[in-house]
Write a structure and sequence with these properties.
Number of helices: 9
Helix content: over 70%
Number of strands: 0
Distance between the termini: 12 Å
Structural class: mainly alpha
């Protein structure tokens, strides 16, 4: 790992914390709640099915299953490093949740949030699902030698999973943004800044 890549990872982690601080009070919290309402209100049965169907792709268990498939295909190093990055991201996310202690949208506004899945454990900021998925996909994709286009598509998948967490009512948009930044920061540390 170079000093430059470590500085890049620290800057991304700092941006994640800035998002958490900004959305914790005042105008930031109000804008976040408005954005939550716009996404969470629902956009029809097809969108409900889609977002409910993809949301758990960000779970640690989904990363473990993907690592198993990668290992079975001969990409053992990519599988092991990707799962290790996902695991570190999950643990770090749980620790940060304990610092911010932000209530889930359905706890903060029981009448204004549409929760479509069972209540997750832990507090709201940051969202672990997109963080874990982005860390796994970034590290595994780099290790497997995927093209920049393929890696960009995988980043898009993590963003969709992040959006699903707001859509199904368990996270604010800033939780998702913070999670994606946290996942990217860990992936940058794990991969030395990447290619």
């Amino acid at each position: 790992m170079t000093v430059r890549s470590l500085a890049r990872a620290a800057a991304v982690a700092g941006a994640a914390i800035a998002v958490g601080v900004w959305s914790s009070g005042g105008r930031g919290r109000d804008l976040d709640a408005e954005a939550f309402q716009a996404v969470n209100r629902g956009h029809g049965p097809a969108a409900d099915r889609f977002f409910s169907g993809v949301t758990e792709l960000g779970s640690w268990w989904a990363s473990a299953a993907a690592a198993g498939a990668l290992a079975a295909s001969g990409e053992r190093r990519a599988a092991a490093r990707g799962l290790a990055a996902a695991s570190v991201t999950w643990v770090l996310g749980q620790e940060v949740k304990g610092v911010f202690l932000r209530p889930r949208p359905y706890d903060a506004d029981p009448d204004g949030a549409r929760r479509m899945i069972g209540p997750p454990q832990g507090t709201s900021w940051p969202s672990s699902h997109p963080a874990v998925l982005l860390a796994f996909l970034t590290v595994a994709g780099r290790e497997a030698g995927l093209s920049g286009t393929a890696r960009a598509a995988l980043t898009g998948l993590a963003a969709v999973v992040g959006a699903s967490r707001t859509y199904v009512g368990v996270h604010y948009p800033s939780d998702v943004a913070g999670g994606l930044l946290l996942g990217r920061a860990v992936a940058n540390v794990w991969s030395g800044g990447g290619r």
